[in-house]
Design brief:
The chain has 218 residues and is α/β, with parallel strands linked by helices. The chain is built from 9 helices and 5 strands. The longest helix is centred in the last third of the chain and has 17 residues. The protein binds 2'-deoxycytidine-5'-monophosphate.
Length: 218
Amino acid sequence: MSTAIVIAVDGPVAAGKGTLARRLAERLGLRHLDSGLLYRATAARLFESGGRPDDEAAAEAAARALNEDDLSRTNLRHESVGAAASVVAAIGGVRAALLEFQHRFAATPPGAVIDGRDIGTVVCPQAPVKLFVTAQAAERARRRYQELLARGESAQFEAILADLEERDLRDTTRAVAPLRPAEDAVVIDTTRLDADQALEAALAVVAERLKLSPDKAI
Ligand code: DC
């Protein structure tokens, strides 16, 4: 038995779960893992070796070869890598290969805030705190659009919305570990919340589940 505490933060793309998970981890003195980076890094390795994301054997081999340095690759946030990540994430062998990495991370004291799609349902079903962070699709697309413009990249709102809806559909309907809230997850809808309000809502859930004062670190 380890003494690590795990906070699972799941939800669809661009709902604000990454920012929330990072800030929660900082505030509570826990480590943070963005599990989406594991799928993105798998896709990036695959591209590098000339493989296609729908080549299951090659994708699984890329996932098995993954190491921590791969998570700091600079191209992981590109839209093309994100789209390919969604394809490799539907492959059972890839998910199995990445599960061990996530279990090791979760079990290391003092614990972690892990954000993704299946943390509360599959990776850490025993997590004492599970959040499901969501927002309306048009609002998520608007945020992604603003983010790209702020980075100086060209962006088209309609294309972003269509891509986001396509990705939601793939993530929620895949056979292996589909995106859905765990039965004991608390849903935080950030459509009308800014980052600070989302953090306060999450801290209130953590305090209630762990019986802590909201201001206290773990
Ligand atoms: O959160 P993200 O956009 O970085 O994730 C990239 C892809 O990886 C996304 O399409 C879904 C997938 N993913 C997953 O299936 N399970 C996770 N725990 C995290 C991400």
